[in-house]
Amino acid sequence: MDALFLNQLFNGASLASLYLLAALGLALSFGLMRVINMAHGEMLMLGGYLAWMTLLVVPGALGIILAIPVAFVGAAAMGGFIQSTLIRRLSARPLDTLLATWGVSLILQQGARDLFGAVGVEVRAPEWLTGSFVAFGVTLPSARLFIILIAALVLGGLALLLLKTRIGLLVRAVNQDRMMASASGIDVKRVDFAIFCLGSGVAGLAGVMLALLGPVTPNVGQSYIIPAFLVVVMGGLGSIVGTTASAIILGLFAALAQIFVDVSVAQMLLLVFVILFIQVRPQGVIAVKTRQLDA
Amino acid sequence: MPDLSRLDPLKPVLPWLLLALGLVAPFALSAYDLNLLARFMAMGILALGLVLIWGHGGILSLGQGVFFGLGGYAIALHMKLADLPSGEIPDFMVWSGRDSLPFWWIPFSSPAFTIAAILIVPTLVGALFSWAVFHRRVGGTYFALITQALALAFSTLIISRQDVTGGFNGLTDFYSVFGFGLSSPGTGSGLYWVTLVVLCIAFVALRWLLASRFGILLRAARDGENRVRFLGYSPTPFKVVAFAIAAMLAGIGGALFTLHAGVVSPALIGVVPSIEMVVWVAIGGRYSLAGAIVGALLVNLARDAVSSAFPELWLYLMGVLFIFVVTLLPRGLAGLVQGKAA
After folding, report:
1. Where are the transmembrane segments (chain A) (predicted)?
2. Where are the domains of chain A?
3. In angstroms, rounded to a whole number, what is the distance separating the alpha carbons of residues B106 and B84?
4. pLDDT score, position A288
5. Can you tell me the distance from the alpha carbon of A214 to that of B92, in angstroms, rounded to the nearest whole number?
6. Which residues in chain A are contacts of B133 at CB distance < 8 A?
7. Could you give the 3-state DSSP secondary structure of residue A140?
8. Domain range annotation of chain B
C-alpha cells in the first residue's frame, strides 16, 4: 500500500466524520418526522460563524473548546426556531417542507453575506491543532484527527442518549411507531422538537470542525450538505447505525475516488454509486423493521 | 381529485387570454422586451413539465436544470460549430490548449442530429435516471434529494471541463442558427413564434394527457402508490414516462432559451436555478398548466425587475416567496383565483 492510498484513506475517514456530523441530525429528524430540513447546511454555517465569534472574544486554545458548546447551543436554538415556526406546520407534507426550508436556507445565506461579507472569515486554530503527526509514512494533520475524535465522541454520546436514557426510549418509541407512541401518552411533538434541536446542534458542532479546515463563508454548508443528503438516502430510515455506516462508505468512496479522478468526477461517481447501491438495497444500509405499509 | 376541471379554475378563460396576449405581443413590444418574453415562455415550457410530474405525479424534481442544460448545450454546440470556418475549433478550446474537437462535438455540426439530440438526449437521460430510482420503489423525499445531487454533479462537471464545455462562463457569442443570422430582427420574431407554437403544442398535449387514463393513474399513484399496486397496476412505468416527458420539455425549453438568451452556462442550470424552477410552478399553481406558465412569466419578470436594481434583495424575496407560497398557498395563484370564484 503506497503513501497516497493511506493518505486518502485518512482523508476519507475525516471526510466521513464530517458527513456523519452533518447527516446525523438530518437522519434523526427524518426517521421521526419524515421531513428533511434543507436549511440544515446553514446550521453548519452558523456553527462556523459562532466559532469565529467565540474566538474573537476568547482567543487561543480555550476558545476552540468553548466554541463547541456555543455553536451547539446556537445552532440548536436556530433549529428549534425553524422547527416550531415552520416545519411543525408542514408536518404532513414532506416535499413542501423541502421547499419551505430551502427558502429559509436562502434567507440565512444572504443574511450571513450581509452580516459577515461574501468573502468569508478565517478561524485561527490553536497551535495544538495546526501541527501534524507522521505515522506509516503519512502526514496526519492534527485538525483532521481532532475531527475524527469529535465525531466518535458525538456518536458515542448519541448512542448512550438513545439507548440508556428515558428521552432515548421515547425517541425510539416514536421512531418505531408514531401512532402507538402517541396513543400510549408520549408527547410526540415534544420529542420531535427535542430531536430537531439536538440534530441542529450537532450540525452546528460540525460547523466548528469545518472552520478548522478552511474559511467560513456564507455557503460553506452547501458543499457538505448534498453529500450528507446522500448519506441519509443510503443510510436507511431511522437507523443511526445505518447512517454511520453510510457516512463511512461515502466518505471513503469520495476520498479514494480522488486518487484516480478529479473532485468533480468524484462527485458524479458518488451519485452513481448511491444510485447503484439502491438497486441492491433500496431500503438503505440498515432499515428499522416496520409493519407500516407506507413507511 | 378525479375532476380535472376543478384543478384549473380559470380553465375556460385563462389559456385563451394567455394565447391572445402571446399573439399580440410581437406587435406591441420592442425587440428587447419581446426577446425577454420569449425567454420566459421557453421557461414556461419547462414549467409545464413540472406540473405533470410534481403537481399530478407527486414527484418533486430539484434537478430540472440538468435537462434544461442538456437541451441548451446541444443547440449551443451546434451554433458554436456552425459559426466556425472549416478546420478551426472554438476559441475557448484554443485558449485551453486543445488542438482538436472532442469526438462528441463533431456530430453536432449537423442540424438534424442537433434537433434529434435536443429531443432525445434529455428524454433518455430522464427515463433511465428515474427508472433506476423508481423501479426500486425509492421515491418522495429520497428522489428529490437524489435529483438535487444530480444537478450539483452535472453543473460541477461542466465547470471543471473548461476545455470542452466552456467551463464556468458557458458557451456564448452565437451568430447564426440553421442558416438564419441571429442579429437580424426577422430571426428574433421568428424564434418568438416558434416558441409560442411549441408552448401551445406542449400545453394542449399535456392537457390531453392529464385528462386521459394515464393522467388518472398518475394522480392515483401520487395519492396512494400502494393502493395502485393492489389494483393491479405498476406505478413505475407511469412515473418514468411522466418524468421522461418533463425532461423532454425541459430540454426543449432549454434549447429555445439558449437561442433567445444567446448564452448557456452552469449558472443557469445548477442547484439554485433548478430549485427556482420549482418555485415558478409553486407560485403559479402546481396543479394548473396555465398557472405554471403564469408563474414562470411572473417570477422571471419580478426577478428581472428586482435583481438588476437590488441583487441581494432578490434572494431574500425568493426565500420569503418559497416559505409563503408553500405554507399559505399550496395551490399557488391558481388556487387563489379558485378560492375567490368558489
Report:
1. 16-37, 49-82, 143-163, 193-213, 225-252, 259-280
2. 17-221
3. 12
4. 67
5. 32
6. 275, 278
7. strand
8. 4-341
Alpha carbon of B86: minimum distance to chain A alpha carbons (Å)? 32
Using DSSP bridges, classify how beta strands B171-172 and A132-135 pair: parallel, antiparallel or unpaired: unpaired
ipTM: 0.91
The answer to whether B157 faces chain A, any CB pair under 8 Å, is yes
Q: What is the dihedral of CA B182, B185, B190, B191, to 10 degrees?
A: 40
Q: What number of CA atoms fall less than 13 Å from residue A172's CA on the CB side?
A: 15
Right CATH for B4-341 from 1.10.10, 1.10.3470, 1.25.40, 3.30.70: 1.10.3470
> Is the confidence at residue B10, as pLDDT, over 70?
no
Which residues make Cβ contacts (< 8 Å) with residue B136, sequence separation at least 6? A278, A279, A282
Is residue A239 a contact partner of residue A286, using CB atoms and an 8 Å limit? yes
CA distance B51 to B61: 11
Name residue B263's beta-bridge partners.
B172
Rounded-to-integer distance, Cα A44 and Cα A104, Å: 14
Please give, rounded to a whole number of angstroms, the shortest distance from the CA of A195 to a CA of chain B. 19
Residue B167 CB-density burial (10 A; 0-12 exposed, 13-18 middle, 19+ buried): middle
Whether A81 has a pLDDT exceeding 90, the answer reads yes
Least CB–CB distance from B148: residue in A113, A226, A263: A226
Per DSSP, the residues of B122-150 read: HHHHHHHHHHHHHTTT--HHHHHHHHHHH
Mean pLDDT, range B72-78, rounded to an integer: 94
Residues in chain B: 342
Residue A56: count other Cβ atoms within 10 Å of its Cβ. 11
- Which residues, other chains included, contact A121 with Cβ-Cβ below 8 Å and sequence gap of 6+? A49, A52, A215, A216
Q: d(Cα B144, Cα A232) in Å, to the nearest integer? A: 12
Residue B190 belongs to what H/E stretch?
Answer: helix B185-211
A122/chain B closest Cα distance in angstroms? 23
pLDDT (tens digit per residue) in B160-177: 988 888 888 899 888 888
Contact between B157 and A264 under an 8 Å Cβ cutoff? The reply is yes
A118 touches A58 (CB < 8 A):
no
**CA-to-CA distance for A230 and A79, rounded, in angstroms?**
21
Q: How many helices (H) and strands (E) does chain A have?
A: 12, 2
DSSP labels for A88-133?
Answer: GGGTT-HHHHHHHHHHHHHHHHHHHHHHH-SS-B-----HHHH-EE
CB A249 within 8 Å of CB A69: no
